[in-house]
Amino acid sequence: TYTITKSLTESQLRSTFVCLILVGIVVIVAYRKLSLGLVATIPVILSAIWILGTIYFIGYSLNVMTVMITSLTIGLGITYSIHAVERFKLIKERTNDDMKAISNMIEHTGQALLMAAVTTIAGFSILIFSPIPPEQQFGLVTATTILYAFIATILVVPPLLIFLARKKH
Fold it and tell me: Can you tell me whether residue 63 is helix, strand or coil?
């Protein structure tokens, strides 16, 4: 059992790394700009690192359930970043005003992302009340990773977009 669990955990970690690279490539290709692809991918990378650190600090081990969280972080977290970057692009194209685009992105998309994050966190938090400890861990860690993805998107994407906008001028 130990050998199988160790092998699955190592395989999942490798898969997560490959998935991060592929997501980055897909987003860069979709935006046709390295900079926007990186802006969308960086919050996901941060969230994955934060959740692995959280797993360690709260005393959970990397097992089949907890290591799957990094994949969920990538899959769910990238959508938050993409929505934020897309809103910025849309408003920037209409107004040609970087600060207005950032403000609009935070005001409108930020509210939608908050509602999406809160409902997703609530859904996974229910698992904390499960009588099965691995499900409890999965619920807690998944809810935390959604929170991290939201926080990273709101705190990291706007400054990066402002930096890119100022770099162009």
Answer: coil
Instruction: Look at the alpha carbons of 112, 77, 66, 71 in this order and tell me if their dihedral is positive or negative.
Output: positive
* pTM summary value: 0.87
Is-contact 153 77, C-beta < 8 A?
yes
Written as one string, the DSSP assignment of 84-121 is HHHHHHHHHHHH--HHHHHHHIIIIIHHHHHHHHHHHH
∠ at Cα 147 (160, 61), nearest 5°?
A: 110
The tens digit of pLDDT for each residue in 128-142 reads 999 998 889 889 999
**Which of 54, 21, 46 lies closest to 151, judged by CA?**
46
Place of tokens 């935070």: 106
CB 47 within 8 A of CB 41: no
Distance, in Å, from the CA atom of 165 to the CA atom of 41, rounded to the nearest integer, reads: 18
Nearest-angstrom CA–CA distance, 21 and 4: 26
Angstrom distance (rounded) from CA 68 to CA 95: 41
